[in-house]
Amino acid sequence: MREVFVDNSDQLQQLCEELQSEPVMAMDTEFLREKTYYAQLCLVQIATPHLIACIDPIQITDISPFLKILYDPDKLKVMHSARQDLELFHDITQQVPTPLFDTQIAATLLGFGDQLGYANLIEKLLGIKLAKTHTRTDWSHRPLGRGQIEYAMDDVRYLLQVHHIQTEALAQLGRSDWLQKDFAALTDPKLYQQPMEDLWQKVRGANTLKGVQLAVLQHLTRWREHQAIEKNRPRRWILRDDVLVEIARQLPQSSAALMKIPGSDGYLQKNADAVLAEVEQGKAVPSSEWPSLAKFTRLTSEQEAKVDLLMAVVRTRAAQAHVTPSVLASRKELECLVQGKHKQRCAVMWGWRAELVGNELQAILDGERHVYLDSGEIKVQTDG
Known about the structure:
By secondary structure, the protein is of the alpha/beta class. It has 18 helices and 8 strands. Strands 1-4-3-2-5-6 form a 6-stranded mixed sheet, sandwiched between helices. A two-stranded antiparallel sheet has the order 7-8. β3 and β4 form a beta hairpin.
């Protein structure tokens, strides 16, 4: 198989011309995001049955010819654990490349468990042990050594073989169509877009605040996000979560009070007026518009028993399907089902999971089916 390292526009154009005729290609990326808001794309690895290529987006400032190939709706992209890679390209173009086949997700339906790593999958399917010598490489550093390039190429070298093995195995199990909704969810642009108004919910420690404090936190979090985007710096470099929470808790009215908050630094001092303005705007929000935390409702003893029953059915169906129970449903999801909350958000209630066990769980809750033991085995029977 031919190997090429593409680090100029002419080479990229030639590669893209070759890729145009390929209906399927394997892809991976190397990126850094420790020092930036947006992930910095450092390398793109591509594999077809004929070649393996590494594209250097640091040396090539315009990769639009490749993006045209990537976003071709007639070209299947095979990736492993694709979410972060897809998020990166969404940040670049505000779109997500489709169609997709994710070998990590496919592995869950073939009895390999949840979140299986690429190297482990290659070893299990092909008996090949991949080197781990460059797992902590700074991929933005140039020039890249031959060992680094070989390591990067290995990330796609076997993906098409894995795809072929997995698609044949899925077909034999009658599961070829099961993954389509999972892949559709993974390539939905909404997955990579979070409204500014909701960002406060991800702030660590937000659950210690209430009332107007949450309104202030919402304003502060939105301000921090704009600052991070504008400066292309990690959120924590602008203001750490614990500082945001403490500002919202104390509601300072002066720069002096603001700077007494633990964790205050030079950036906060330089932007004290802007931060205090956000505090005042948050305080001015009417109480009817204050954000609120989702209330945790403790399950009753009867509901706990129902969850235990549903979990037993999930484990039984998982064993029969040769998948791990966590792939089908988490206990938290089952608690939501029992409480009648957020059913539409439960993965077990749509796609192949619903066919395998989700619809059955709902029928049990609705009293349309009952669970019993037969010679020590859990069985589900339709009432009547």
